[in-house]
């Protein structure tokens, strides 16, 4: 499930190919305006520490991620808190993967999968993680990036993720756009951290 980067007038938009969602700042035929104000942003460069184990990830999970990272179709698997696989390997298409048959295994589990086109999370990834009450959802890419959204200590919370994303776009879209122009990883970091704040998640980004 990967986003397609696109420009719309003066805004940088990220359109979900399969759901029609938009990330980052955007302007949709006058329906959603790019924020004109500029809030102060204090955001650090993404954590590029290659030692993913510092984030307490079992070796079985990282080994599986290395195996699927370069596949041309999305592959994923569920693991328990100790790193034991609790499902078979789920295979999707180049752009998406269906988990509807795995909801009974998802609660409190970690689901990791690959994004063949090097994109970050889609909103559908986060909607599924929150709706299935996962402990964590992860995505890995061929260019060595690892995206993680963990359930916070107080659990998932907040409104519909689509509405949360719109709120983040309206409040932070200008800053996200400017940061993205300078460094896509930093712009993406701000976007998902602001979403995480509203849904009870903890967002992390790593690069090997």
Please give a quick description of this structure.
Helix content is 29%, strand content 22%. The protein is α+β, with helices and mostly antiparallel strands.
Q: Any idea what the shape is? A: globular
Largest sheet, in brief, is: 6 strands, mixed
**Number of β-strand runs:** 9
Please tell me the overall pLDDT: 82
**SS class:** alpha+beta
How much of the polypeptide forms β-strand, as a percent range? 15-25%
The largest sheet has its strands arranged as 5-4-6-7-8-9
Radius of gyration: 16 Å
Query: First CA to last CA: what distance?
Result: 21 Å
Order of helices and strands: EEEHEEHEHEEHHE
Name given to the CATH architecture of the domain at 59-156 and 201-207:
3-Layer(aba) Sandwich
Number of helices: 5
**What top-tier CATH class of the domain at 59-156 and 201-207 fits best?**
Alpha Beta
Helical percentage: 25-40%
Provide the CATH topology of the domain at 59-156 and 201-207: Cytidine Deaminase, domain 2
Low-confidence stretches: 1-40
Give the topology, please.
Blueprint: E1 3-8, E2 11-16, E3 22-23, H1 59-68, E4 75-79, E5 90-91, H2 103-106, E6 110-114, H3 123-131, E7 136-140, E8 145-151, H4 161-182, H5 184-199, E9 201-207
Overview of this protein structure:
With 208 residues, the protein is an alpha+beta fold. The protein has a domain at 59-156 and 201-207: Cytidine Deaminase, domain 2. It has five helices and nine strands, in the order E-E-E-H-E-E-H-E-H-E-E-H-H-E. It has a six-stranded mixed beta sheet with strand order 5-4-6-7-8-9, sandwiched between helices. A three-stranded antiparallel beta sheet has the order 1-2-3, with helices on one face. A hairpin with a 2-residue loop joins strand 1 (3-8) and strand 2. Helix 4 runs antiparallel to helix 5 (184-199). The model is unreliable at 1-40 (pLDDT under 50).
